[in-house]
Each structure stands twice: as C-alpha cells, then as structure tokens.
Amino acid sequence: MSSNPPLGESAIRIENLSKCYEIYDTPRDRLKQFLLPRLKRRGSPAKQYFREFWAVKNVSFDIKKGETVGIVGRNGSGKSTLLQMICGTLTPTSGSIQTNGRIAALLELGSGFNPEFTGRENVYMNASVLGLSNDEIDARFDAIVQFADIGTFIEQPVKTYSSGMMVRLAFAVIAHVDADILVVDEALAVGDAFFTQKCMRFLRQFMQNGTVLFVSHDTTALVNLCSKAVLLSHGKVVEIGTPKDVSEHYLASLYETTQDVGGTSAVLPHADAVEEGAEEEQASNGVVTFRDMREPLINGSTLRNDIEVFRFEADKTGFGTGYAKIVGVSLTDWSGVPLTWIVGGEDVVLEIRCQAHQLMLSPIVGFQFKDRLGQVIFSDNTFLVYQHAPVVVAAGTELLARFQFRLPVLPSGDYSISPAIAEGTQDEHVQHHWLHDAMILRVHASSVCFGLVGLPMKKISLENV
User: Fold this and answer.
1) pLDDT tens digits, residue range 249-275?
2) pLDDT of 188
3) Residue 377 CB contacts under 8 Å (≥ 6 apart), including other chains
4) Residue 270 phi, psi (nearest 5)
5) Measured between alpha carbons, how far is 168 from 197 in angstroms, rounded to an integer?
6) Hey, which end of the chain has fewer CB within 10 Å, N or C?
C-alpha cells in the first residue's frame, strides 16, 4: 500500500480499486493458460482460456478519521473482497489503497487463527501480526482473556472451539491492540446476546476517536451506528450517502430483485372473531386500557409529549410494481376525526388508504414507524388477522386499512410513517407500493428520560421494607 500523497484527515483513501479473478471451466484450461502463451511466437496474440470475473471494479471513496462507515449490498456484491483488500489480505488487480494508522480486522470466522494452536498461542500470534510486542501482549493478556470469557478453553486448540468462542477470542484481541481503524465483516452475527452487547459497548467507545468500517445486512445497525454508508452492487459503488438514504435504496433493490421477506405465520382466527373476542373481554372485565398514573402531572407541565402531525405527502420516493398505490395516510381519533396534534400515550387510529389498479386476491397493508435516522421503532401489517379470509379488492376500487393502538411516549425529534401495500403471504409476497416517509410527526416536548420510547406506567411505588 502506498503512503503518498499525504492522507491528511483521511483514514482510508481508495481510488479506482479493482479485483479480477480468472474463472476456468476445467483444470485443462488452467494448464493451457499456463503453458500455451509461453509457446506462442513473440508478437502473435495469445488466446485466453478463462473468463474474467470482476469482484470489485473501479471503486473509489474516502473515509475521514473518526468516521463510522457501513458497507451494504446483496451477497456477491463485493463487500468482503473490498474489506480484504483494505486489510491487505488480498492484492488488488488495479487501483490504490492508502491507510493512515494501525488496522485491526475481524473478517471471516477464524481468519488469522491456526486451528492447531491453543487460544493462548493464537492470541500472541494474532496480536503480534497486528503490531504488538511480546511485552505489550503480556501486559494485556489477562484483559484479553477476561473480555473473551471462554474460561479454560484458552489453553485448548482453537479447532475445538465453537463459532461463538472463536468470535469472542478474535474480537477480544482486536479490542486490545490500540488500533486506529477497526474493520468488521458481520462476524458478530454468531455471538450470543450478552457478548454482542459487550462488543457494542466497545464499538461505541471506540467510535468516539477511532475509525470504523463494517459490513452488515442489518439496516437498523447501519442507521444506528454509521455516519456514512456505501451501497455496492456487482462490485461497483451504486451510492454513497447518509445511512438512511442508502438503506432505503438497498431495501428497494432487494424487493425489486427478490420480492420476498422473512416472517412467521401464526394461526389466528378470522378478524371478526378477534374483534368479537376483544368486545367480550371488555364486557366481562370492564375497562381494558389504563392511563399512566403520572398523566395529570405530566400533561399539566412542560413535559407533556406534544406531537405535531404533518400532512400526508404522496410524492415521496418509493418503489413497487405500481399495481396498487398508497393514496392517503392519516392519524385519527377512534371516531375517525383527523388529528393534527397528539399527546403521546393517547389512543389513535392510523388509516392507510390504497387504490387497486388490478384485481388483488390477498392484499397486505402495513407500515413502519421510524425515527429521524430511519431506525424502525415499531411496525405492523394486516396479514395475520386476514390470512384465512383475505379481502378481495377489485381493480379500480379503494382499500382502507385501520390500525388502532396507543401511541407511545416519544423522545423529542422528528419521526416518520412509511406505509406499504403488497400481495401474497408474510413469507412470499409482491410489493406493489412502498412509500418512504409519507407522513412526518414532530415531537416538541417529552417526559422520556431514556430509551427509544416511553411506556405508560400503571403504578410506580417506593417504600421502606
């Protein structure tokens, strides 16, 4: 890797980076490619016995010191190849990479470990490769073992480790080498919940001064952690921008190519039976809902959770087949009166009005409620309630979905509602129209102290025991 010209405030600079692999159909073609060009007379054109596959092609971007940058893209888009070239484990075919500072990388599971060596031996080998002396490793070894939390397995060969244990040890090493740049390739996906939280605490602390580059399919992590994002497709940069914009572009490309999502399909009774059951419960038990015991105090102060509701914007960006369209979104009270101002903790109804441009046999209408970063706070759809008796919609007619719920207490800031209409099942469906940020809500004041949302408290007590 070159260190000229000076990087200045840049931690990583990539210019026209490409990586090409030679793909041979048979071992015989590989042998021909090795021998025959050497037997050709000088000046005569040599025949190629391979096909070129460009895993990465003409990629250029700059990462400043202290930035956290996420790389997102479908499988095979070149993400891991790009990271390996940045870390120096792969040689580029063309282009240049400049780095400013010590890089610590957590790439493929178990990369950099010798399976025959013990955990202790691999710690010393891995840390020395990352630039630490034996004295420095000695001083940090106990902290590394404590962070990994694998007990006596530190003295056992790595080949006996589970995937989770291997990730624990690898992350523990890179967390103690005083790196300037941290590169992570989705390795944390195999860790347990407690260790993942430990890693996230380390990452957030590291992000205060260091530079982080990571690959993830988790768009929530992207918008929550990153200051910038890069979308790759077929080895090329499609977009560089804010995590929110890039995540929306990535989500749209996924639906355009695959048109399915994961989900569960629990067996529920028909919608009418659900509503009848709710009515019976209310009749037998009296009032089902409750209010926060502090509501009179909060609503009588400057802490009242005042939420301004802006009008539905039909011209927002979106995607889908166009066979159905979102034509209206509104928040109303339970009697159907549109609301322009809400207090957090109140009961509301979200109405989503759709226009069908063709016959729809099994429509699904849903929404996502997101914060200003694009992080999904909560979401829902109509599938589970109507899966056994779908509502058939004729071409040219409208469909109205109504979601009745209690709006949570929200921290101050801007929020958005993204509605969607699809057709099929939770597991296999076609997205007809997904509209980004169709309605904006602005929270002007809040009693929320911590967390993404606040829940109404039925009772809070404090007493001597």
Assistant:
1) 888 887 766 554 333 333 334 444 444
2) 61
3) 369, 370, 371, 408, 410, 415, 452, 453
4) -65, 160
5) 12
6) C
Structure tokens at 382: 């109509």
C-beta of residue 405 within 8 angstroms of C-beta of residue 239: no
Contact (Cβ atoms closer than 8 angstroms) between residue 179 and residue 210: yes
- Which has more confidence, 245 or 283? 245
CA dist 400 and 396 (Å) reads 14
Q: Tell me: the pLDDT tens digits for 383-438?
A: 999 999 999 999 999 999 999 998 888 888 889 999 999 999 988 899 999 999 99
Which region holds residue 156: left if phi is over 0, alpha if psi is between -120 and 50, else beta?
A: beta
Alpha helices by DSSP H, 71-118? 79-87
Helix or strand run (H / E) with residue 307: strand 306-309
**Where in the chain do CATH 2.70.50.60 domains reside?**
271-443
CA torsion angle for 449, 450, 455, 458 (degrees, to 10)?
A: -60
- Please tell us whether the domain made up of 271-443 is placed in CATH 2.40.50.140: no
Delimiting residues of CATH 3.40.50.300 domain(s) in the chain? 10-257
First to last CA, the chain: 66
- Record the pTM: 0.70
Q: Which two tokens stand for residue 212?
A: 């982080």
At 140, list the tokens.
């940090």
Give the mean model confidence (pLDDT) for residues 239-247: 91
Which string of b and e fits 108-127 if b means at least 16 CB within 10 Å? ebbbbbeeebbbebbbbbbb
Query: H or E element: which one contains 22?
Result: strand 10-23
The 10s digit of each residue's pLDDT in 168-216 is: 898 899 889 889 999 988 766 656 667 777 887 888 889 888 999 988 8
Nearest Cα to Cα of residue 15 among 56, 62, 55: 62
In the CATH hierarchy, which top-level class contains the domain 10-257? alpha beta
Residue type, 249: H
Output b/e per residue, 60-75; b: 16+ Cβ within 10 A: ebbbbbebbbbbbbbe
Structure tokens, 158: 């790595």
Tokens of 175: 């967390």
Q: What is the full DSSP assignment across 51-74?
A: EEEEEEEEEEEEEETT-EEEEE--
Closest CA to 111 of 126, 121, 97, 101: 126
The sheet that has 398-406: what strands, in order across it?
324-332, 347-356, 398-406
